[in-house]
Amino acid sequence: MNKVILMGRLTRDPEVRYTQTSNTLVASFSLAVNRRFVRQGEERQADFINVVAWGKLGEFCSKYYKKGQQVAITGRIQTRTWDDEQGQKRYVTEVVAEEAYFAEGRKDASGDGNFDATFGAMPSANSGSDFEVSSGDDLPF
Description:
The protein has one helix at residues 55-64, and strands spanning 4-10, 15-18, 25-34, 46-54, 70-83, 89-102. It is mainly beta. The protein has a single domain (4-102), classed as CATH 2.40.50.140. It has a five-stranded mixed β-barrel. It is globular, with a radius of gyration of 21 Å. The relative contact order is 0.18.
């Protein structure tokens, strides 16, 4: 099985190009994905992973993804080889995106913060609603 799930920040805006033979859109971008563990006394490390998205998914990524934005990608790993202009053999490993998601809230109208419109979010205790947080003693589970 070849399945990849990544969550990270875009290192640059997606670059769009079209294939020569079929004029198919392909968007390329790179994700900075933090490693899960940090060695004591060191800063967190990140891996920079190249991603390509084809067709409608590539169009979506090029239209809505911007540098610095946190996104989630599912896809598969692919390796390619080719000969460059000097005749040197080149290799690349990349993720071919199959699904793409936003992984953070949208910015509010002023652009300086997140608005609280997360799907399924519980209202805050001081929102003026009748919502009350229980101590947990009377919960049925």
